[in-house]
Specification:
Helix content is 80%, strand content 0%. Helix 2 runs antiparallel to helix 6, helix 4 packs antiparallel against helix 5 and helix 5 crosses helix 6. The longest helix has 29 residues. It is globular. This is ABC-2 type transporter transmembrane domain-containing protein. It is found in: Membrane. It comes from Cirrhinus mrigala.
Length: 144
């Protein structure tokens, strides 16, 4: 499960990344951020509204996934709270990379496709590291 679980998470959340990136770029295309500033809304509140909406969406997924993994007997000896924290950490890293990738694009459809592609490409070093884990020293693993 050490190799299959991270791969399954990465593959299952590719659509989330595409959706989050497309939503941010679409808002930028429509210039909603500027309209909100003209109406007196603080720019930070616009960011936090997106963050809370996306985090709640991912949090619901993480809760369901934690229940399935614990109640389904897939990870019976794992602490449910630690598993929940691990999945939340991964979910927030998905949000962070989505926000980062969205800042590089101006067109919605290109951003969604490229965002999911960049997310998958960023995961490839993990796959290489898993395969080379036995041949690497501790200091090199820590550096990677």
């Amino acid at each position: 499960i050490a190799f299959a679980f991270p791969m399954a998470l990465m593959i299952s959340w590719v659509l989330f990344v595409a959706h989050f990136v497309k939503k941010l770029v679409h808002e930028r295309e429509l210039r909603l951020h500027e309209y909100m500033k003209m109406m007196g809304v603080n720019p930070i509140s616009h960011f936090f509204a997106w963050l809370i909406e996306s985090a709640v969406f991912l949090l619901a997924t993480v809760i369901i996934l934690t229940i399935i993994l614990k109640a389904g007997g897939i990870l019976p000896h794992s602490n449910g709270f630690v598993l929940f924290l691990y999945l939340c950490d991964y979910g927030f890293s998905v949000l962070a990379i989505s926000f980062l990738v969205s800042s590089f694009f101006d067109k919605t459809n290109i951003a969604g496709l490229s965002g999911s592609l960049i997310y998958v490409i960023c995961f490839f070093p993990f796959i290489v590291l898993i395969h080379l884990e036995d041949n690497l020293s501790f200091s090199l693993k820590s550096a990677l």
